[in-house]
Amino acid sequence: MAHNQPIRGNTHASGGAEIPDKLYFRIGEVARLCEVPAYVLRFWESEFPQLKPNKGGTGQRLYRRRDVEMALRVKSLLYDEGYTIPGARQVLKSEFKQKEPQLALIPGAATDARKLQGLRRELQAIAALLAQPIGKSDDNASQMPSRTKAVPMRSPRTSAPRTDSPLFKPTSN
Question: Looking at the domain that runs over 2-99, which CATH code has it been given?
Answer without folding.
Answer: 1.10.1660.10
